Amino acid sequence: MDAKHALTAAELAQRLGLELRGDPAIALHGVGSLAAAGPGELAFLSSARYRGELAATRAGAVLLRGEDAAGYPGTALVAGDPYAAYARAAALFHPRRVAAPGIHPSAVVHADAEVDPAAEVGPLTSIGARSRVAAGAIVGPGCVIGEDCAVGRDCELVARVTLVARVLLGARVRIHPGAVLGADGFGLAMDAGRWINVPQLGGVRVGDDCEIGANTTIDRGAIEDTVLEEDVRLDNLIQIAHNVHVGAHTAMAGCVGIAGSARIGRYCMLAGAAGVAGHLEICDHVVVTAMSMVSQSIREPGEYSSGISVMRSRDWRRSAARLRQLDGLARRVIALERERE
Amino acid sequence: MDAKHALTAAELAQRLGLELRGDPAIALHGVGSLAAAGPGELAFLSSARYRGELAATRAGAVLLRGEDAAGYPGTALVAGDPYAAYARAAALFHPRRVAAPGIHPSAVVHADAEVDPAAEVGPLTSIGARSRVAAGAIVGPGCVIGEDCAVGRDCELVARVTLVARVLLGARVRIHPGAVLGADGFGLAMDAGRWINVPQLGGVRVGDDCEIGANTTIDRGAIEDTVLEEDVRLDNLIQIAHNVHVGAHTAMAGCVGIAGSARIGRYCMLAGAAGVAGHLEICDHVVVTAMSMVSQSIREPGEYSSGISVMRSRDWRRSAARLRQLDGLARRVIALERERE
Amino acid sequence: MDAKHALTAAELAQRLGLELRGDPAIALHGVGSLAAAGPGELAFLSSARYRGELAATRAGAVLLRGEDAAGYPGTALVAGDPYAAYARAAALFHPRRVAAPGIHPSAVVHADAEVDPAAEVGPLTSIGARSRVAAGAIVGPGCVIGEDCAVGRDCELVARVTLVARVLLGARVRIHPGAVLGADGFGLAMDAGRWINVPQLGGVRVGDDCEIGANTTIDRGAIEDTVLEEDVRLDNLIQIAHNVHVGAHTAMAGCVGIAGSARIGRYCMLAGAAGVAGHLEICDHVVVTAMSMVSQSIREPGEYSSGISVMRSRDWRRSAARLRQLDGLARRVIALERERE
Q1: How far is B328 from chain A (nearest CA, A)?
Q2: Active-site annotation of C, residues
Q3: Cβ contacts of residue C310 below 8 Å, gap of 6+?
Q4: Chain B partners of A223 at a C-beta cutoff of 8 Å?
Q5: Choosing among C124, C234, C293, which should be mutated to test the A contact, i.e. which has the most A CBs within 10 A?
Q6: What is the pLDDT of residue C248?
Q7: Cα dist. B46→A179, B33, B53 in Å?
Q8: Helix and strand element counts for chain B (H, E)
Q9: Would you place residue C1 in the very low, low, confident or very high pLDDT band (cuts 50, 70, 90)?
Q10: What span is annotated as the signal peptide, if there is one (chains A, B, C) (predicted)?
Q11: Per CATH, which fold does A102-304 belong to?
Q12: What dotted CATH number matches C7-93?
């Protein structure tokens, strides 16, 4: 894919701090996959799965590990972690969009809001009372920023993001379309046969460099705030309930749900559609695999699972029926063991 | 957290109908947690989990049960259900927002729509033909109301809510950002190797006092309506398919999915990410725990589950592998039992 | 439900190519259920579940199979697949909305965008640079179309749809409110203890006649495109990650999640809340039942499951506890078998 910046292989190696083998003068203007990259593009080999594509690649240069570079006749950039090096290289060719300062005439900004002159506010966006948008920030088209919110330096609200109330974003936070931060937490009390609402008085605090996916929801706290520390990465369609606390550098894949007041550690990874119950703690460096449910605190780092992979339905139905009778089966085995004695 | 209303402990006890112990003149201007409340704030003790925080609290007054009040030297309001009492107290300090009547000049209201002069329509909202907004209702910024919809008295559509078509809201319904009511149900028929759409001709009817969370979707019915009775409470990212009927006072936590034509009773509670199959019935007073799947009708009140909690992945992989062979294992136990005879 | 078109039973039979029994002159102006349809309405009987309602129906005419028509004294249209015939009949009475050409004055269209004069652009919608909207297309209220997108002929973006960047829609694609196509894929690399973003340079390509549900998200590809072939049908709240490829005529129910680079075949059906792991393949004609997880490639057509249905919680807790010890139980059975020998 074409990009606006072109670099020679030598310049790229120098910018990334990598060893270069092959032709230093090759001009590169973008990135591509091993299978599809052309002579002006940089590809990468990170997983053994794609090693077979290396011999046939037409890429101008390839990022790879030392052991893979050994037999490769083309121009190579040798990296300990080719995927991270690729990410940095691709960002050189395709830098993040920079704010085009100014407020679109169709935007509606409350008289008591403060938008820095170096911020960009897109068309058909509204900003409420006492909210602030810092320099370098982009608030894209169709966003709704409510009252008492803050958008930090160089944030990007791509489009149609909602910050409801009392949402404070650090610097360089990116939020994708449809995300809703700061909606009322789901706080209810049953009173004489009817639900009554518990006012949700806290806010949401999001640390520097966080990323929040499309249609993800993060509710504001009941009394104190819901908190994401720095560099938390959330994919699409994730639910973060009120008073949740997520530690720095933790990543969650799509469709994860975290119930109220759960406290998740740093450097955790939750795979797709994992669920975490409320009022529990997960320590640092925990991995939860896909479609697994955490219903008690986890106090030791490591990988945890409860997801079950499919089998033929007719076979599965038998297993599932037996599972429902499993306590009885276990008792029968105990009885057999006792008889034997 | 500061609020606009201040009350003495005596006034509060009277308003809530509770017994007061301690200083009736203490001025309270808001609520807080036991751990964080200051001398002008009201806290509550509802769960034994937090009893340890009572001794150290700096709260001006505390809502608690009689047995907890016995040893407490500070000002206490004694309640049978301290959490419900807290909810009512917090609502006194932080009353719901009242409509600021008028239509923002950036809103687009169809000539055939009717907006009551005592309703509020926020910026950048559009309202379609033959739709009505009643007195006291708030339609916040960025909403889209399509054709033939009705927003009842004192409803609040917080922001960026979509009512697609034929959505009728009762009184005091609250809907959070990103929710979509009245989209086409997912009705398809296979015809000569291609899908054809079944026109979705029904609407959505939502009873008084319902609440609908952020990014939740409720489709309109195929022929008749999708129905929520009164006081139904839905959290975020919930899917309610066409023709579903949800009984009064039922609550669902985040990420629940209900398939088409399911009929859920009154006073049910569905925990996070529970799923309900289509064309079945769940009676009143049923609780479904998190990540559980209901695939047959439930005819007796009580609590139902099928979710599995995580264990270490290496241990789980062994259990899961055995689960796939469980029918065989059960047969082997039967063989052992037979031999013994 | 009333519709704008009226037809006699004879005209309808002719338009649908069906055999008519009974009164050819009956005037029909809409459709309804067996239970609720009136004398001017057409009902259908497709499932044995509703056969009991046939005797009592007041419908003017009924679509049904030959064997059901035999004993029915009213006007009948005989169809091999009454549900598909109903879908076609209902579409005759309730045809899809046709574009009302023109751009609403509140819409914001970039100078470098191209909107065909025969397309409709609704209020408070924005369209970015280098995007195109073809003839007959409807872009409803509150949509955001970013840069380098294409909306094909006769598409309908109902309302508040977001196309972020490089999203190409074929003809007759329908997208429901809150859907987000073309957001950045969730591509991250860990580098010196912090996440860095992998630029997402691909787009999204959506084939003719696809349908995409409310609040569904489809990310754009990392290098190449995320692809939906023709006639793919997605319900609400579905997550399609970057580089996924979905074959023609495949349908997915609500809350399904597909992880990155998965390749799903043609004519597949994924039931509600099913999950598919990344970098795997599912062949054509595969059915995955509700809340099931696919974590390895599927190479043979058929139905696959791993979802578990609820039971009473107290009974389930015993089964679930035994499940966690299942490997041990299996070893004990093996020990018993060995002793016996």
Answers
A1: 9
A2: 242
A3: B288, B292, B293, B294, B295, B298, B304, B305, B306, C316
A4: 1, 31-33, 36
A5: C293
A6: 98
A7: 33, 11, 12
A8: 5, 40
A9: very low
A10: none
A11: UDP N-Acetylglucosamine Acyltransferase; domain 1 (2.160.10)
A12: 3.40.1390.10
Q: Are A113 and A132 in contact (CB under 8 A)?
A: yes
Question: In sequence order, what DSSP letters do the residues of A89-110 get, joined into one string?
Answer: HHHHHSPPPPP--EE-TT-EE-
Strands A281-282, A263-264: pairing is parallel
Q: Do B325 and C330 touch (CB under 8 A)?
A: yes
Chain A residues with CB-CB distance to C189 below 8 A: 81, 83-84, 86-87
- Give C217-262 as a DSSP string: EEEPPSSS-EEE-TT-EE-SS-EE-TT-EE-TT-EE-TT-EE-TT-
Mutation for testing the B interface, residue in A144, A252, A316 having most B CBs under 10 Å: A144
A261 in contact with chain B, both atoms CB, cutoff 8 A: no
Question: Which residues, in sequence order, are CB contacts of A91 under 8 Å at separation 6+?
Answer: C196, C197, C199
Partners for A (CB, 8 Å, 3+ pairs)?
B, C
The answer, for C336 touching chain A at a CB cutoff of 8 Å, is yes
Which contacts (CB < 8 Å, 24+ apart) does range A269-273 have? A272/A235, A272/C239, A272/C257, A272/C259, A272/C275, A272/C277, A273/B273, A273/C257, A273/C273, A273/C275
Q: How far is CA A224 from the centre of its chain?
A: 24
Per-residue pLDDT tens for A141-200?
Answer: 999 999 999 999 999 999 999 999 999 999 999 999 999 999 999 999 999 999 999 999
Q: Which of B231, C126, B176, B20 is nearest to A181 (CA)?
A: B176
What is the DSSP secondary-structure string of C114-157? EE-TT-EE-TT-EE-TT-EE-TT-EE-TT-EEEES-EE-TT-EE
How many Å apart are CA C172 and CA C97, to the nearest integer? 12
* Residue C299 backbone zone (phi > 0: left; psi -120 to 50: alpha; other: beta): alpha
- Give the residue from A51, A322, A200, A201 showing the smallest Cα distance to B213: A200
Compute CA distances A85 → A15, A60, A115, A198, whole Å.
10, 16, 36, 49
Q: Class of A2-93 per CATH? A: alpha beta
What number of CA atoms fall less than 13 Å from residue B80's CA on the CB side?
A: 4
Instruction: Give domain limits for chain C.
Output: 7-93, 102-304, 313-341
Helix (H) or strand (E) holding A11: helix A9-16
What ipTM does this complex have? 0.96
Touching check for B34 and chain C: CB below 8 Å? no
Q: DSSP string of B127-154?
A: E-TT-EE-TT-EE-TT-EEEES-EE-TT
CA C165-C168-C173 angle, 5° bins = 120
Query: Which residue type, as a one-letter code, is found at position C56?
Result: A
Smallest Cα–Cα separation from C309: which of A316, B286, A271? Answer: A316
